Amino acid sequence: MRKLLFVGAIAAGLLVSGCGGAEQKSTPVAANEVNQTSPGELSPTATEMSPEISPSPMSPASPAQATPTGPAKIDVAQTRFGPVLVGEGGRTVYMFTKDKNGQPTCVDACAAAWPPVLTLGQPQAGPGVKADLLGTVQRPDGTTQVTYNKHPLYYYAKDQQPGDLTGHDVDDFDGEWYAVTPEGKKVKD
Prior knowledge:
Elements: H1 2-21, H2 46-49, E1 73-79, E2 82-86, E3 94-96, H3 109-113, E4 124-125, E5 134-138, E6 144-148, E7 151-152, E8 170-172, E9 175-179
């Protein structure tokens, strides 16, 4: 019986010392080895750490790049240049001088910077928009793009909010881009 008590006492002693009863020693860490994030804080993402990677100004879910779920609506908004056509969310729409005979020529990289105004069905005219000037054209990828006075319409990816006109009078992709008047002409500065 004594042997069992002795073995039990030794086992209990080992168990206590293995469960944190022993003192822990810490080692000094150089300042450049310290992790800068505190507990509960997320470490920086690749985007935050690498300046070359930056998020797109407009995500694919934004109005300018979203797949249409119904007819597009074109409205008129007052700007510093006077009334201009706007699409989803009040975003300015543009015409491209390189487009001829109502056919869109802005595809691939161009369409990423200048997303086409797409629609499912006949686009709707808001107040001040001439319904008889609204139309559609099929794009090379099979989607349907809104036209106005036979000009295919586009958004500009650098426009961040309704009313922005950063794409007006821009020379890009071998053509010029202009906001569009309710009469279907390019806006003059």
